[in-house]
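Input for the complex:
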Amino acid sequence: MSTDLAKVTWRGRNIPGRLLRASAPVASFLVVGALVVGASRAAFSATATDASNSWSSGTVVLANDSSGSAMFTVTGMKPGSSNVKCISVTYSGSLVPASVVLYGTVAGTGLSTYLTTTIEIGTGGSFSNCTGFTPTSTIYNALTLANFGTSYTNFATGLATWSPSTTPDSRTFRFTTTLPSGTGNAAQGLNATATFTWEAQNQ
Amino acid sequence: MTAIGAAARPAIGQRRRFMAPSSLADGAVAFAATFVCNAAFWLAVWALGPILFGWHSVALVSGSMSPLFGVGDVVVAEPYDGSALAPRTVIVFHTPGSDRLTTHRIVSVNSDGSYRTRGDANAVDDSTPVPASAIVAVGRLRVPFMGLPVTWWQTGNYPPLAATILILVLAVFFRGGWPRDDGPRPATSRPGGLSRLARIGVVLAVIAVVATHFSAAAFAATTPNGANAWGAGTIFPGARSSTAHTISDASNGGTAVNASDPLSYSGDTRTKTTGNWAAAYSSTRYFELGYEAPLAAGQAVSGASFLFDWAAATAGTTVCFYFEVRKASTSTVLATYGSSSSPVACNGTTTLQATSTPIPIVTTTDIANDLAIRVYAWHSGAKAIVIDRATITGSTAYQSFVLYEKSSTDRSTGTATTTPWSLSTAEGTAYASAANWTTAYNSARYLSFTFGAYVPTGAAVTDVTLTHTWKGSTAGKNFCYFIQVYNGATLLGAHGSSSSPYHCDSTAAWVTDTISLPEAASVANANAVTIKLYGWNAASGKSSHDLLGLAVTYSLP
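Predicted:
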């Protein structure tokens, strides 16, 4: 029956074929409209989903080797005290190139205004010790920790570190904090806290 | 019925300018081709049309909003009017710090009115808050696929790009159905609609427009190192000095005589008698004390008080006083306690009266270390007064302390006489042994000096040094001495001995010895140092001691 219908002609034209072709503009209009409207409804009403989503378009993954331990837990600092720590940061995302910046938050009762901080980037060394660290550049040179906290607060304002162009790609950061030898008695008994955050974004 | 079969079908005729399907299969091909052409056109209309009304179309070039938004999607966005936006809203904004556009979703609103955003696929919020001024548009429509060709082109992914172009070309070519070899290809407009070429042109134009409006990549990942902490020591290392105010003099070989500072201790029968005061208050008649500076700087002080034990020297009269707290180095008045009309205390007897007056102006050890007290007194009989004690007490968080005089100035008569505490400074006012020494060492003949306690509990004591300025009585005749260091009755160490004196000198000029006392380098010992000085004088004369200071270097973690 369908074969018969498929062969129905009128004035030499195949009517089903003609109808089918004639329906294409309308069908495409409806399908595209439904596609756009449906996609939009879903996309614009969702909440930000969590990290468990998988995606095929690439990844940005950043980790450090501190295992959750703080670099610095220093007490009893006195003028001239200096502490040096290293931490290795590894970019292992699939998206390259990427940019890695460093920023942080600084708090406490005011010691941060006295703590001279230097941050170098290089290779070698690890969280447990700096042996083998070879600096390639100094990204924060002998300014106060407080200044770091107010200057570098997020990705946009953060300190540029390096741009991974291969994956994985690691760098080691050496932090040196010093209470200068000339520090006055006003710094006695003060404390400071800091969180350093590295953030990677693909370019 | 196959497409090959369709190709073998006879021509319908040449009178029609565009072909019509001659079979169902032909119609299916035509349907597919037409559908593709029109779908591309309508997608373009969705993506481009709103631009005519001032909206924005941006192509996503990363998957940071996946899975709901994919790479190559076009987000059509309504211009932002500045109104408050709710979480979940997808916004197109200028990435702070750059001119890139980012399309992310609002997570929350910050207290300052800026927005916290995040790509749906990101594990972390965007670190940079987005101020309203950076928002370009609010996403309204998602048009799939339209940005893909440009994305492919940009990333050098040419196969799908070529395939897409091929499909579009084939779609134009086959729009009328399977091609036949007996008629011209349609090339003219179809009545009532855009030509295929025009539609494809629209699609390409949209691709071009979209190509200039990318929403930037914004996959982000962070790795923190938190809980870093630094703490400064409570008291930084430094040497703090005091001098001995307790003297026990056994230079005569008999019972030791108390020769301590008369102004430093209460009830020890050692007092200082001033000159004669006026019967009424006078601003030029006072008794002023300057205090030593034995405390670590930078510490808070609480409970500071001025202890003043005193009496009228003559019965039947009344003496009254008030006082000022001054900064010793500049003589600036810091505070006044009492007044000429409202004295701190009056005493109508010759019995010593103890007063303790809070001096809350002393809030730090920096003030306490640079302190002077000026006592204004008046005496109904215009006579002298007797002072037994004039000290400062107070506490830091780690210790209580007593400050002793460094010198006193008696201006009770209107004329000033300054008397340094004999052991406080090497200025010539010295303590002379009460008796003549013998020519040889005698274990019963000594001077004993005891220091105050100023080292806080828990301190790390790194050095204790005694400074001793002295001379013998007679030029050409040796005075020799050695010392023993005690904590109470416990002998800690000796420096020199009877057979090998620490120092002998015959010039009768001032000599200064600096003696390290490592045996006293602990809080307990440094706070209870007694120096026993055994002397002997070839001239059988006395000795003089101008300075006996103890410098303790310590820090408190």
